[in-house]
Write a structure and sequence with these properties.
The complex is a heterodimer.
Chain A (H helix, E strand, L loop, with lengths): L3 H27 L8 H8 L5 H14 L5 H12 L1 H13 L5 H8 L4 H33 L15 H17 L10 H29 L3 H10 L12 H17 L1 H9 L6 H17 L2 H11 L9 H4 L4 H39 L3 H4 L4 H27 L5 H13 L2 H9 L5 H26 L5 H6 L19 H24 L4 H11 L15 E2 L2 H12 L1 H15 L11 H15 L1 H11 L1 E2 L4 H10 L4 H34 L5 H33 L6 E5 H11 L1 H7 L1 E6 L6 E5 H18 L5 E9 L3 E7 L31 H11 L3 E6 L7 E8 L13
Parallel strand pairs in A: 4-6
Antiparallel strand pairs in A: 1-2, 3-5, 6-7, 7-9, 8-9
Helix pairs in contact in A: 1-9, 2-9, 2-13, 3-14, 3-16, 4-11, 4-13, 6-7, 7-8, 7-16, 7-18, 7-19, 7-21, 8-16, 8-18, 9-14, 9-16, 10-14, 11-12, 11-19, 11-23, 12-16, 16-18, 16-28, 19-21, 19-23, 20-21, 21-23, 24-29, 25-26, 25-27, 27-28, 30-31, 31-35, 32-34, 34-35
Chain B lengths: L2 E5 L3 H13 L3 E5 L2 H11 L3 E5 L7 H10 L5 E6 L4 H9 L4 E4 L4 H14 L2
Parallel strand pairs in B: 1-2, 1-3, 3-4, 4-5
Helix pairs in contact in B: 2-3
């Protein structure tokens, strides 16, 4: 046919062209002029679905089993046309939370479950390696066929097998264009451009082959079908086979087009614009239709002209009589195989590194302490690509000719279909739990291995054939391909039915029987309610403390110092306040860093990394309420809102009661003595003031909680502020006959904060202190202490103190410490803490120390560089 | 002319209640929490208790329940800023004779007290 060296040169030229296109695509992307931002390119790249299985295997399938090959395209065509909404939701979720692989998606949905992510990655590898092996086998056998050799690889030593070199070149391609950089979005424009190009090449080549066969070897469709109808060998070529099989194959391939690692990579991770899905919804099915037009004609022609001595999987190529056309068809097949291999290995490398290797490595202290983890992650991915390709090559060499293109492909499909309940179910059903997903997946995969993988292994002779034929230990009921006596669905149908049935039942059953942790419930709501939520602040799954610098350094180890610094600066700008290195990172910053890390290493590892630098506390009541708030339609939230409003109105009614009563008393009793009258008017004035204060505080709190408070952050010297607060509360202290000691050192302590905000906090703490102090003889002390990082203002009273169990509760809204003092709204401490947190500070309460009585409220604020402090001095 | 015990932890509200009751000619005693109320009942033997619900320590429900359990039959008028159906029902269930929501109208309060005193004993 064609000289081997010509085939090699042309193949290398073709692969060289792919490198060129990918390089150009990356350059254009870097210049901001994307080559792939179009619905057409998106649809074409999705056609990576059509592998050498389609290219060669469909014809083989059609020649042996009639029309059944169509199922593999009907499923995806339906799925894409009908369920664009599914794909769009997956894309939206993934983009919002920077999810870059199937395993990350699973992990993130179920509360950053490392186990689930790892399992999904493992199943993907196990299910996909044979599929990669298929592609290499197709390249290997068609290379020998087109260059006039034997189809079987049996006589060829591995090192002389073309497939090995193709595998190595593809590894190089995937490494260059798939792991060039560690990016938060993990998009690879050059690679996508090359894949779209490959889709065009394989379509053109296959159409050329079909046209030649139909119109060159025969006189058109009519002639070909007439002769086929007359041939006894083709009596049932247009038979549609077993109905059971049809149904299950359509279901299977509909899942596969969403859940195969390469489809997720192209369809979700590499998606530039969600709107492109709409173009793909019609263009992708159209592509599948066109590439299938000539499948049946080629299959019929193959049976008529070549007969059963030639493997039907090679009819496409074997029918070509001109060497130029044969070469074109070979290149088409090469493009189908390489496209699949490239995308699949890149997708698997992300999964393996994010969900298997990195989480394990980070457990080891010496790795976690390394400076440049980004490079390590990239190296892991590159090694993964090479290993996966070599595994695929090894699998193909060992399994040899027993590996049927379509059968092995279907086994892979059935493996990834096991993800469907957990991933797709979890996208709409909030009640789905991690344990449900795990139980379903584990059981589904076990049944998959038994009913589908085992028979394939038996074909290769690795397992005794009797196990499949007669069932293990001769128990017919346990025959893998007719489990529990199920017949009529076909071998694949049987396996898919049992594995998916048990998977779904366990997924739903275990989910319903168990309970979600707060984190799980939060994540569920984030996924399911993606369209009801607007991005941005508000989400706080975090309660802990970490200085800004540590968080930034952590991020820098993965994305580089510049990008990390940029993220922090941008956050500071948006916040309208500078973020000194030692300031406590606010929850929003922590969330942003975690999201950025998720893009680099996946959600489970990102969570673990953030937890490793932050001293995190377990989720408390406040966070749980916030989590609950995430699920807006939960009744729980309404109940909490009701409670809040009921409490507010209750608090407002108290002063209102006095005001109303005395107003009516004054109205109804015009003859009151002047002194009594004055006393009542005084009460009314006081209560009106109290009411005003409450209303203001409710508004303050609402502003603080919605993030709409306006602060003018400047350098503020704390000493004068303390004096100001002391002066303002002097009357209170005099009235309550409580003494106030002010202890401020001589130097200047400067913090970056809003002046009025700090004064408000101090006033609140001082007036609280007066209230709880024993009247007559009480003593309150306000102290300022500074080290080079934190300025601490302590307000110590000698009241009854705050029991340890209530120390966090008193910062909740409407929680008044101990016996309800008069005049308090219960909002003061909640507001004060939120104000202090705005400036990166803390507000805590502790024992007075020593005498066992009294409480000390401590405000900690990060010190600005402008402070100049001398030794403490009493005043 | 009756003996009225006022139990509320808001001093200014107590002042207004004292005024209103005294003006009707009643003898008045005021306390600020549940325990004090129970103690005062024994020595003061009121004909009617004006009982706030939100009290430090024992709340109004508890006080009311304890009084009834101890066999006291004086009238109890509950006063509270919580005015939801469920709370009114609960108040009456533990033995209160009537229920008034804060902020109350003074004439309404006086009329209620008179009616309760007239109906009893």
């Amino acid at each position: 046919m064609v000289a081997a060296w010509v085939v090699v040169v042309v193949s290398l030229a073709y692969l060289g062209l792919l490198f060129g296109i990918a390089h150009h695509g990356d350059k254009r992307a870097a210049a901001g002029r994307s080559l792939i931002s179009s619905g057409v390119v998106y649809a074409l790249s999705l056609a990576v679905y059509a592998t050498s299985w389609t290219y060669y295997g469909s014809v083989g399938r059609a020649a042996t089993r009639g029309m059944e090959f169509l199922t593999i395209y009907l499923g995806p065509a339906c799925a894409m046309a009908c369920s664009a909404v599914v794909l769009q939701k997956i894309i939206r979720v993934s983009k919002r939370y920077r999810i870059t692989s199937l395993s990350d998606f699973a992990a993130a949905r179920y509360g950053n479950s490392r186990v689930l992510g790892g399992l999904v990655a493992l199943v993907a590898v196990v299910g996909t390696v044979p599929y990669i092996a298929l592609q290499l086998k197709a390249v290997s056998s068609t290379f020998r066929l087109v260059s006039g050799g034997e189809v079987s690889a049996a006589g060829v030593p591995p090192y002389a097998d073309t497939a090995l070199y193709v595998a190595l070149v593809l590894a190089l391609f995937s490494i260059l264009f798939g792991t060039g950089h560690l990016d938060a979005t993990e998009r690879h424009e050059g690679m996508v451009a090359a894949i779209a190009f490959e889709s065009v090449v394989k379509l053109v080549a296959f159409l050329a082959a079909g046209l030649y066969v139909t119109f060159g070897l025969f006189g058109g469709f009519g002639d070909l079908f007439d002769r086929a109808a007359a041939s006894p060998a083709l009596a049932d070529a247009t038979d549609i086979g077993e109905y059971g099989n049809w149904f299950w194959l359509i279901v299977l391939s509909a899942f596969a087009v969403l859940l195969l690692p390469r489809q997720f990579q192209i369809g979700v991770v590499e998606n530039v614009d969600e709107r492109h899905v709409r173009t793909a919804a019609w263009l992708f099915p159209l592509y599948l239709l066109v590439i299938n037009i000539f499948v049946l004609p080629i299959a019929l022609a193959g049976v008529l002209l070549l007969g059963p001595t030639v493997s039907p999987d090679t009819y496409v190529l074997a029918l070509q009589q001109s060497s130029a056309l044969a070469l074109l068809v070979f290149i088409g097949g090469l493009s189908a195989a390489t496209g699949m291999v490239i995308v699949e290995t890149i997708a698997l490398s992300t999964m393996v590194s994010n969900s298997l290797v990195v989480p394990l490595l980070l457990r080891r202290a010496e790795v976690a302490a390394r400076g440049d983890l980004g490079r390590l992650v990239l190296r892991i991915r590159r090694v993964t690509i090479l290993v996966v390709l070599l595994l695929g090559f090894g699998f193909f060499r060992i399994s040899g000719d027993a590996l049927g293109l379509v059968d092995m492909g279907l086994v892979s499909f059935a493996a990834v279909a096991q993800f469907a309940p957990a991933l797709l179910g979890g996208l709409w059903w909030k009640g789905a739990t991690r344990n449900g997903a795990l139980a379903g997946l584990v059981a589904g995969i076990a049944l998959w291995a038994y009913t589908l993988l085992l028979p394939e292994l038996a074909k290769s002779g690795w397992v005794p054939g009797s196990v499949v034929r007669d069932g293990p230990f001769g128990i017919a009921l346990l025959r893998p391909q007719e489990l529990f006596g199920l017949t009529g669905a076909g071998a694949v149908g049987n396996g898919v039915f049992w594995s998916l049935l048990v998977n779904v039942v366990l997924f739903v059953g275990v989910s319903l029987a168990g309970r979600q942790t707060p984190a799980e419930a939060g994540h569920a709501a984030l996924f399911v309610d993606i369209d009801r939520r607007t991005p941005g602040p508000g989400t706080r799954f975090y309660r802990g403390s970490v200085p800004v610098a540590r968080l930034r350094d952590l991020l820098a180890r993965f994305v580089g110092a510049e990008a990390a610094a940029a993220l922090v600066t941008e956050h500071a700008t948006r916040r309208g306040a500078p973020l000194p290195d030692d300031a406590q990172a606010d929850p929003e910053l922590v969330r942003q860093v975690e999201t950025a890390l998720t893009g680099a290493v996946g959600p489970a590892a990102a969570r673990a990394l953030v937890a490793s630098v932050a001293d995190e506390e377990p989720l408390g009541m406040a966070e749980v309420i916030e989590l609950v708030g995430e699920a807006q339609h939960l009744r729980e939230l309404d109940r909490l809102k009701d409670e809040f409003i009921a409490t507010v109105t209750h608090e407002l009614r108290t002063p209102l009661t006095s005001i109303r009563a005395f107003t009516e008393i004054l109205r109804d009793n015009p003859d009151l003595p002047a002194a009594e009258r004055a006393r009542y008017l005084e009460i009314m004035a006081t209560e009106t003031e109290r009411l005003t204060r409450m209303v203001n505080q409710v508004l303050d709190l609402a502003r603080l909680e919605s993030g709409n408070a306006e602060w003018r952050v400047t350098d503020v010297a704390l000493g004068p502020l303390i004096d100001e607060a002391a002066t303002a509360t002097a009357q209170l202290f005099t009235d309550g006959r409580v003494a106030l000691d002010v202890d401020v050192p001589a130097g200047t302590t400067v913090v970056e904060a809003d002046r009025d905000g700090v004064v408000q906090v101090l006033l609140n703490l001082l007036s609280n202190a007066v209230k709880v102090s024993p009247p007559a003889g009480g003593r309150v002390r306000i102290t300022l202490r500074t080290d080079d990082r934190v300025a601490r203002i302590d307000v110590a009273d000698d009241g009854p103190g705050v029991p340890a169990t209530e120390r966090e509760l008193i910062f909740d809204r409407f929680r008044q410490g101990g016996a309800g003092g008069t005049g308090g709204t219960g909002l003061g401490l909640a507001i004060s803490r939120r104000i202090v947190e705005q400036f990166g500070g803390t507000l805590e309460v502790s024992d007075c120390g020593g005498n066992g009585r009294g409480a000390t409220f401590s405000v900690g604020l990060p010190v600005s560089a402008k402070s100049a402090h001398a030794g403490a001095k009493r005043r | 002319m009756a003996r009225i015990l006022i139990c509320d932890d808001e001093p200014n509200i107590v002042v207004s209640l004292e005024f209103l009751m005294r003006r009707q000619g009643h003898e008045v005693r005021a306390v600020g929490d549940g325990d004090a109320a129970l103690a005062a009942v024994t020595e003061f033997a009121p004909d009617l208790v004006l009982l706030d619900l939100m009290l430090p320590g024992r709340d109004g429900y508890e006080v009311c329940q304890t009084l009834r359990a101890d066999g006291h039959h004086m009238k109890i008028l509950m006063l509270t800023a919580k005015g939801r159906e469920a709370e009114i029902a609960k108040g009456l269930a533990v033995g209160a004779d009537a229920y008034l929501t804060k902020p109350f109208g003074t004439q309404d309060l006086v009329a209620r007290v008179q009616r309760l005193l007239g109906a009893g004993t």
